[in-house]
């Protein structure tokens, strides 16, 4: 899951560099949600 977040972050950076603000915003939002999900699942796995 962390790999997907990094992939979407890279896509957002490339899209922002090329001037595609909409694609960059959506990709960054997806990356943020994936990182949040990863952190929640990692915390749960440490607690259980």
From TrEMBL:
Pfam families from the UniProt entry: DUF1328 (PF07043)
Domain of life of the native organism: Archaea
Main location (coarse class): membrane
Protein's UniProt keywords contain Transmembrane helix: yes
Membrane topology: Single-pass membrane protein
InterPro entries: DUF1328 (IPR009760)
GO annotations of cellular component type: plasma membrane
Transmembrane spans: 29-47
Keywords of the record: Cell membrane, Membrane, Transmembrane, Transmembrane helix
Cell compartment(s), UniProt: Cell membrane
Signal peptide: none
HAMAP family hit by this protein: UPF0391 (MF_01361)
Family to which this protein belongs: Belongs to the UPF0391 family.
Name the record gives this protein: UPF0391 membrane protein C492_05510
Biological source species: Natronococcus jeotgali DSM 18795
């Amino acid at each position: 899951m962390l790999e997907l977040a990094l992939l979407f972050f890279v896509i957002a950076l490339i899209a922002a560099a090329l001037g595609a603000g909409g694609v960059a915003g959506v990709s960054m939002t997806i990356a943020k949600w994936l990182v949040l999900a990863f952190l929640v699942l990692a915390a749960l796995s440490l607690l259980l």
